[in-house]
Design brief:
The protein is about 65% helix and about 5% strand. By secondary structure, it is mostly helical.
Length: about 950
């Protein structure tokens, strides 16, 4: 008989914790639990118990484990976990998951069809998509994710697990992981999560004496009190409370006859003392001796491959035919040493990791090395392609055979392939292993690859340190050219991170290595990085024509040299530089970038081109159709980062067009998600779009709250400052009827852009500011024409304000017909922008009244009706005041009572009193209230007295506090 306990012993507290976590997941209160303990302590038994209970509750169970062979396979536990469920239940077909299929294609083979080739989603994108999938799977009953042996898993899986556990709180998911207390990224993650209170960590200790006795009784199917005392004492002493070792020692006692049945109980023979390690080794050696020779040889070879092994690889190494191979595998299964791996049909696994270790350790060192050497040679020369997994297997076998340099070469090549596939974390792990084993002659090549892997994986500081430590190479040699490529790649990462000093150092290093006459391809790569560097704040800018010529030469050279990625980088740079000449030139560059990326199957660069073309289109015309197409392309690609970037642009377009519901839906969908995955640029833009939405609706308190979040996200250190000042602040000031503040915000834009040249033109510099300066009499026709000739003046948003500015100038000059024409052009251009349209009418009406042109009364009535209906009281009141000053009767709005909260309405507060009440939340003075509502200070005093009486407040201070409480969510 085999000594296996049918029940879990000594883990009642842990099982209770698991039951509680399962119940919480069913209530949409996600939990993360980690079981930490040495090999054989019972982690897998608890995982099995959790799975059993989850199945009983009808919860989907996803179970996977990391390989214990030492191979680095990105996302293996996650792929295995999803496959274990989908094989039985099928892949989910919920429409809401469709946008996440491309990102999940690396984990779900069924979703790889149609996935964009050539694009590798980021780990964070994949993690967010996995969260959405788990949320759908657990929607009705909750779901359980079981990940075992995380100490052996890849860094990408660790990163995904970290993201998931940080965002589980409101999801119907229980994540249960197991690992040994071994130093590494997995243990670091678990300890960090425990400190952040995002996970519960359970340290599994050895069983006590009574629990060992109970386990022994369960294994022997006999009451614990009938266990011979000598057997019990030896198990306690030698197993140290480890359940697996208890069972292994019992197996040995049963196999050797030193523990045998006696009637309805058990009796023990005399047993020599011995230490545990040698005892276990001797136990397995004796068990092997009792097996048929072919089965024993097969198991020893399999153990050399690791605790889990592929049937195909085992057959390659042993050379056995199918019939003999599977006959011996069946015999090995019958002995209880191995079992089919339920997660993968072509793999087997040893009953425990210690089993494989013990089998290999039973061989003499020379015999182990010879077996590993034969296995490495068989795999390497099998004729099968050496993919990353097989290269790592060969490396582990070479290392076991004592060939460190050979192992290093295999690991380095596997790491480079991982890097090319976008698995940066795994590439770094493999290259670091290679570095520790490499021969002197191979060290520099491994270090170079590792530096690039660190840079592209996000560890720019580590990459720079490694690049600085590289040994010198002969100038102008092939080694120098290869080293120069490393510095160029690191420079590109640095310039994209806006680290100007580091970029410049890497460019200088590259130029020093490749010499004054680099190859055309390297010259193009350097020119692209150099061009992007010149655009960073604080850097010396080239003369525009020279910068364009250099970028164009780089683009043409890269195309000629067959470097489509560098060509796309160059055309992207050229599109930015070409904006100085107008958007037609910029679009031509982007169209070329689109054509190249399509021709060479570069999906990420294709979507980049579509996004930039969409941005240009909506900036020029206000039409977001092409931007929506880019959003669809980004979603199909599986790039959540790009999709969120486009969402920010679409949200801002919706604000410009006063489509408030659409803007709220987009920001609500993407603001938190962009923060979760660290998409900081998109996150800041989405926050600013939310602030602009509030400002454009005249909701100052909401705008202030949104801008505070924008600042906390680093907005004041970004290139979005001009938009914050002009598009948000100036418009908000005008809707508060505060023109001096609006002009101050726009002047601040001009000052900022003098120090930080920008190619983004929605800040008001080329539209709203010239109009306000013309209205104030501070700008003449010369200043207007200087602005109107700039590329930024061609944007639809800016052009509408410039049409009004010219109309005012023409009206002052007495050209009323010309002013009327410009006003008609304004009406055509502003049709897509309701807030800007009516704000423009309100702004120019007084100038038209003064100079006797246009239809200012109609404009004021139109604007007043719009702003009143939108709940923007200051401009509506200003329009009414202007109409009165023009001698025109004004119809009072006696409606609006529906906007007054019920408690105030029942106390008799009137619409006009409520307008005053809303403003009190900001604690303004009477003069400020009068100015904003275009009424007299005496009228304000009268309304305040009435409000104090009707609300029962003691004084103005108490009334202001009450107003702040009541209108926190009101416009």
């Amino acid at each position: 008989m085999r000594a296996n306990s049918p029940v879990v012993v000594g883990r009642d507290e842990e099982i209770g914790l698991l039951s509680s976590a399962l119940d919480a997941a069913r209530r949409r209160s996600g939990r993360a639990l980690f079981l930490v303990g040495e090999a054989g302590i019972g982690k897998s038994r608890l995982v099995g118990e959790c799975a059993y209970r989850a199945y009983g509750l009808g919860m989907p169970v996803l179970r996977g484990r990391a390989g214990s062979t030492g191979l680095v396979v990105p996302f293996r536990p996650l792929v295995e976990a999803l496959s274990s469920h989908f094989r039985a239940a099928g892949t989910p077909s919920d429409p809401e998951l469709a946008p996440y299929h491309p990102a999940l294609a690396r984990l779900v083979p069924e979703w790889r069809n149609g996935a964009a080739a050539g694009y590798t989603e980021t780990v964070v994108e994949l993690a967010e998509a996995l969260l959405r999938l788990l949320s759908v799977l657990g929607r009705d009953t909750g779901c359980v994710v079981l990940l075992e042996d995380l100490h052996d898993c890849d860094t990408e899986t660790v990163a995904v697990v970290e993201y998931v556990i940080d965002n589980l709180a409101d999801l119907p998911v229980l994540l249960l992981g197991t690992l040994r207390p071994e130093q590494g990224t997995a243990l670091d993650l678990v300890r960090s999560a425990e400190q952040r209170h995002t996970a519960t960590v359970v340290e599994l200790r050895g069983l006590g004496d009574a629990q060992v006795r109970a386990l022994t009784g369960a294994c022997l199917e006999t009451p614990p009190e009938r266990i011979p005392e000598a057997v019990h004492q030896r198990l306690v002493a030698r197993a140290a409370g480890n359940p697996y070792l208890v069972e292994v020692l019992l197996d040995d006692l049963l196999d050797t006859g030193r523990l045998r049945r006696a009637g309805d109980g058990w009796e023990a023979a005399d047993q020599p003392d011995g230490t545990l390690p040698s005892r276990i080794l001797r136990s397995w050696a004796q068990r092997l001796d009792r097996m048929d020779e072919p089965v024993r040889d097969l198991l020893l070879t399999a153990a050399t491959l690791g605790s889990q092994f592929s049937v195909a690889v085992l057959q390659t190494v042993t050379g056995l035919a199918d019939r003999a191979l599977f006959t011996h595998l069946r015999s090995a299964v019958e002995t209880g040493v191995i079992a089919p791996d339920g997660a993968a049909p072509d793999r087997y696994t040893f009953r425990h990791a210690l089993t494989a270790e013990a089998l290999v350790s039973s061989l003499a060192p020379a015999e182990r090395a010879a077996l590993a050497r034969r296995a490495a040679s068989a795999v390497e020369h099998s004729g099968e392609p050496l993919d990353e997994d097989r290269r790592q297997l060969v490396a582990s076998l070479e290392l076991a055979a004592g060939n460190r340099a050979g192992a290093a070469l295999q690991l380095a090549e596997a790491g480079r392939r991982m890097l090319a596939a976008g698995s940066h974390g795994s590439a770094v792990v493999l290259l670091e292993r290679s570095l520790s084993l490499a021969a002197e002659a191979d060290l520099a090549g491994v270090q170079e690859s590792l530096a690039v892997a660190r840079a592209e994986g996000g560890d720019l500081d580590g990459a720079l340190a490694l690049a600085d430590a590289l040994p010198p190479v002969p100038a102008h040699s092939e080694a120098a050219a290869r080293r120069g490529d490393v510095h160029i790649k690191i420079a590109w990462v640095a310039v994209m991170a806006e680290r100007a000093t580091d970029t410049a150092r890497q460019i200088a290093a590259a130029r020093g290595l490749v010499g004054p006459s680099p190859s055309p391809a390297r010259r193009a790569s350097l020119a692209v990085v150099d061009g992007h560097l010149s655009l960073l704040p604080g850097e010396d800018r080239r003369e525009p024509e020279a910068a364009e010529r250099a970028a164009l030469t780089a683009a043409e050279t890269a195309e000629a040299e067959g470097l489509p990625v560098v060509a796309c980088q160059a055309w992207q740079l050229l599109a930015l530089l070409s904006r100085e000449r107008g958007f037609d030139a910029a679009d031509a560059c982007l169209e070329r970038m689109l054509s190249l990326s399509t021709e060479h199957s570069l999906p990420l660069w294709r979507v980049e081109a579509l996004v930039r073309l969409g941005v240009n289109a909506f900036m020029r015309t206000g039409d977001a159709a092409r931007l929506h197409s880019a959003r669809t392309a980004a979603a199909e690609l599986g790039s959540l980062l790009l999709a969120q970037t486009v969402d920010g642009l679409l949200a801002m377009n919706a604000v410009m067009s006063a489509r408030w519901d659409e803007a709220e839906e987009i920001t609500g969908r993407s603001v938190e998600a962009s923060a979760r995955i660290g998409n900081h640029g998109a996150h800041r833009y989405l926050l600013l779009a939310g602030a602009a939405m509030a400002a454009h609706r005249g909701r100052r308190r909401e705008a202030d709250r949104a801008l505070a979040a924008f600042r906390r996200a680093g907005g004041e250190r970004s290139a979005l400052v001009p938009l914050r000042l002009g598009f948000c602040g100036a418009i908000g000031a005008l809707l508060d009827e505060d023109r001096p503040r609006a002009l101050a915000e726009l002047d601040a834009v001009l000052a900022w852009e003098r120090d930080h040249p920008s190619y983004y033109y929605l800040s008001g510099r080329f539209g709203l500011r010239p109009l306000l300066r013309v209205l104030a009499g501070e700008a003449d026709r010369g200043e207007y024409e200087d602005v109107a000739g700039a590329p930024g003046a061609a944007l639809a948003w800016n052009r509408q304000f410039l049409e009004l500015a010219e109309a005012v100038l023409l009206g002052r000059e007495g050209d009323h017909a010309g002013a009327a024409q410009r006003t008609a052009a304004f009406h055509a251009r502003s049709a897509a922008f309701p807030v800007a349209r009516h704000l423009g009418l309100r702004l120019v009406a007084e100038a038209a009244l003064a100079d006797g042109w246009g239809e200012p009364v109609l404009w004021l009535r139109t604007a007043e009706e719009y702003f009143y209906g939108a709940g923007a009281q200051p401009p509506a009141a200003a329009c009414r005041a202007a109409l009165r000053q023009a001698g025109v009767s004004v119809t009072q709005h006696r409606g609006g009572r529906d906007r007054i909260p019920p408690p105030l309405r029942t106390n008799g507060v009137t619409p006009r009193e409520y307008e005053v009440f809303v403003l009190l939340a900001e604690r303004p003075g009477n003069q400020q209230i009068a100015q904003r509502l275009s009424i007299s200070p005496r009228t304000v005093e009268k309304h305040l007295a009435s409000l104090i009486s009707k609300t029962g407040r003691a004084n103005r201070t108490a009334l202001c506090e009450f107003a702040a409480e009541c209108v926190v969510d009101q416009p």
